[in-house]
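User: Quick sanity check before I run a bigger batch. Here is a single chain. Can you write out its predicted 3D structure?
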Amino acid sequence: MERDWESVYISDKIHLVEIVRAVLEDNNIPSVAIDKRDSSYIGIGDIEVYVHPDNSILARLIIEQNKL
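Assistant: Done. Predicted structure follows.
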């Protein structure tokens, strides 16, 4: 992942993040999930989905249209 990728989705639930990533992948948008949860306390923190800036608007639109 390059430094300039943008966060398009944040959740504390891994299954929702994986659904978002699958939907983006179905639409040919590469994505990366970064787990920022505390390693000692899994309930603290979030998981973020990042995409390349060229795809960020389309990714947000797809996420919104699919009510994810």
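The beta strands are 6-11, 31-35, 47-51.

User: Great, the batch can go ahead then.
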